[in-house]
Amino acid sequence: MSKPHIAHLTAILAAAAISLPLLASTSSAFAANPRTTTHVGTQPSGLKGHALPQASSVGSVSFAPSDRQGAGSATWTVGFTTSASGALAIGGTITINAPASTTFPSAASAYKLNGTTVTAIPTTAAGTVTIATPVAVGDSSAISVVITGLTNPAAGTYANTSFSVSTSADTAASNPASGQSFSVGSVNTTTGLGLSSASVAYGSETSETFTVTVTGQSGDGHPEGTVAVYNSTTELCGATLIPVGGHSASVTCSLTTHELAGGSYSDVFATYSPGTPSSSNASYTYGSSSSTPAQAFSVGTVNTTSTTKTSLELSAGNVTYGDEQVEQLSVSVSPQDSGTTPTGTVTISGANCQITLSSGNGSCTLPAAYFNAGNRQMVATYNGSSSFRRSASAKETITIATATTTTRLKLSTTRVTYRDEQVEQLSVSVSPEYPGIRPTGTVTISGANCQIGLSSGTGSCRLLPTQFGTGNRQMVATYNGNQNFRRSASAKQTITVVR
Known about the structure:
This protein is an all-beta fold. Strands 13, 15, 16, 19, 20 and 21 form a six-stranded mixed beta sheet that branches. Strands 33, 35, 36, 38, 39 and 40 form a six-stranded mixed beta sheet that branches. A five-stranded antiparallel beta sheet has the order 1-2-8-4-5, with no helix packed on it.
């Protein structure tokens, strides 16, 4: 087409242009954001040159969605004005056209025209709906069609020419000026990542703090959701965002101790995952984003040049309760390579014993009465050093036998008068095989109806009046034993009861 013809056609279109402020409603999500509110030029007062027939068309068209998430559910408010000869009687039709991926609801109850619910079943097709007016509308009258439960077109950018309104009395408005657009989809976010240090020592990884900030768009609310920090495909840490401004949110997270092996990590980035909702402003939906470029940090290598082997040896596999100190626990730590000797400490689990190595060896003795009687397992662990790695011995078992006891019974008198037996005090003592911890438990005195609870290995009781008849009575004190001490009985003691 020649340039003169193009210029002539442009003039014709301009003469037919109308005011088409896309998303003009201040109550809509789009109108709240200047990036998504589009205004096109108004019709000029006149156009000199060839006069063309003027078709009656709608004016002041606007589309105002409640949400702009691509393929998401929304409520649209579509506004326009009938022409000077565009009156509609009840049953007149209004046709709304949108991108083909827009889905209009098929229920009449989803449509309200100037506040009145539509009664006739609407006719829908891909991106198009035709409804019958439930009320009469006059010439040059404003019409507002509210559509509930519409599905937005797929995410993308659409020209204003993708949207139009016509009625059974008026044609659609002429195409608006070029360059206007209607955006549908998630609002862009920007994710930033900061590292507290370029290197950390192995074992001190918690000192590496990652600060992640996610920024949305001004007026769209602050992003909500979670962030995660990765090195390549390995997640290092993650956290839930905390708002820090009108349209920003931030959070920190750290490595855990020994989380990473020593070395360099050069593909470190943060990723934002939107929550539900994804913005503090319910009218907006934020999209995911990742920080760029990738960053790097390093973890110091463990300074261990040699593996080690730890062994534990018992001087005796069997000891008696109260005499455990005869057990000597000996350890040795040998290096992988000869010529060097491990230094440092060895801890023996369950033995309350830590040994400082001398020439790779060391020993300790068990405390007396440290274990209860029974079988006990122990492991010696070498704690490593700047030159040698940690290692642990095989399990060793020690058996602690119950200790023998000696029980004694003492009478305060050997002769009592009938009905006055209470003057007799029976005293008992229980001694362990090895000095130290005194036996606990009870002693029963046969023939005396007396059971004594020991305190520090001793106790006593008195006879009851008339407990015995006259004559000689023999008594024996028996210690009943416990987990660590064996039973034992005293020698017989004789008491004489006279009248």
